[in-house]
Design a protein that fits this description.
Blueprint (H helix, E strand, L loop, with lengths): L19 H8 L5 H11 L13 H34 L17 H24 L2 H27 L1 H17 L5 H14 L37 E2 L3 E2 L12 H7 L5 H11 L1 H35 L1
Antiparallel strand pairs: 1-2
Helix pairs in contact: 3-4, 3-10, 4-5, 5-10, 6-7
Length: 313
């Protein structure tokens, strides 16, 4: 007897019953457009960058130029510092010897301070450009702006106080004259002024009578004399310096002294030289300001590029 499998019939209108897993899959709010939206979001450069923005070739060139620019001024600052330190060490008193000028009034201290300032600022600019450090770049910009402001203020003061500047120079020459034998720096300065401008004393060669070593009543061979830098022929036989060419010059009459010495004073000669060099001094000051402005602009561009990358991060 053959048996047959009979499928029970369902009432009309009743759907086929689904499995629970299939029913849950049909209930999920899934759409094929969701994948497209995710891909668009990942590809949209305004939403997310896979890589940081790369600097342009011009920005890299400016950065290297800023580094080299500050490196040059760093070397110049170190050279100035070395000259100042060498000057202080060479004039330091030997053990048991006489002391020289006080450190606070030594002109070589100006070289040391200028060298330290220029080296520190230039080093900050070098490291700021090399390491892309906003802090160092801001310090460099602030220092350059401060130096530029002080230079402009000094130039304005020189223009407004020209008469007082001439008086200050006269006082400096008088100080050099009085302390000629006591301070080697003042002695070198006054000798260079008298030799270059072909002058002697402040107003005339007779001003050396106020020096205690050259006064006619002073003991020693320098009495009634003047320094060799006052002589018209400071070299003997055209090659050997003659340190005694001014001995006894104050005891001579005006005509004899005029044939031996530069009888004119250095005060008027120095004022005339400064008036003749006013254009060169103004040009040098302008060039220095332009150099500082170029360095500041380079550092400003590097700082802007660095901050653009920081904002992206």
């Amino acid at each position: 007897m053959a048996l047959s499998r009979v499928r029970p019939s369902q009432p009309h209108g009743e759907g086929t019953r689904l499995l629970p897993q299939a029913s849950r899959l049909l209930e999920l709010p899934y759409s094929s457009f969701d994948d497209d939206d995710d891909d668009d979001a990942e590809q949209d450069p305004g939403v997310w960058y896979p890589d940081p923005p790369k600097p342009s070739p011009f920005s890299r060139c400016v950065r290297h130029l800023a580094f080299l620019w500050n490196l040059l001024f760093l070397l110049l600052g170190l050279l100035t510092l070395a000259v100042g330190v060498w000057g202080l060490l060479t004039k330091s008193p030997l053990p048991g010897g006489e002391r020289g000028a006080p450190l606070g009034s030594d002109p070589m201290l100006l070289f040391v301070l200028a060298g330290l300032g220029a080296s520190a600022v230039s080093l900050a600019g070098c490291l700021g450009a090399l390491r892309a450090s906003p802090c160092l770049l801001r310090f460099f910009l602030g220092a350059v702006l401060a130096f530029g402001g002080l230079e402009l203020l000094g130039g304005l003061l020189l223009l407004l106080l020209r008469r007082r500047l001439r008086d200050a120079l006269r006082d400096l020459l008088l100080l050099c004259l009085l302390r000629y034998q006591e301070d080697p720096d003042l002695q070198f300065l006054l000798d260079e002024v008298q030799r270059s401008l072909q002058c002697c004393g402040l107003e005339s060669y007779r001003d050396w009578e106020s020096n205690p070593y050259f006064n006619c009543s002073a003991p020693g061979v320098r009495a009634c004399g003047v320094p060799a830098s006052c002589c018209q022929q400071p070299l003997q036989n055209g090659s050997v310096p003659n340190a005694q060419c001014g001995f006894g010059a104050l005891a001579l009459g005006p005509a004899a002294a005029g044939a031996l010495l530069h009888a004119g004073g250095c005060g008027a000669a120095l004022a005339a030289w400064l008036r003749g060099q006013a254009g060169a001094i103004a040009t040098a000051a302008t060039a220095l300001l332009l150099l500082e402005a170029v360095g500041a602009l380079l550092a400003l561009r590097v700082l802007r590029d660095v901050m653009a990358v920081r904002v992206w991060q």
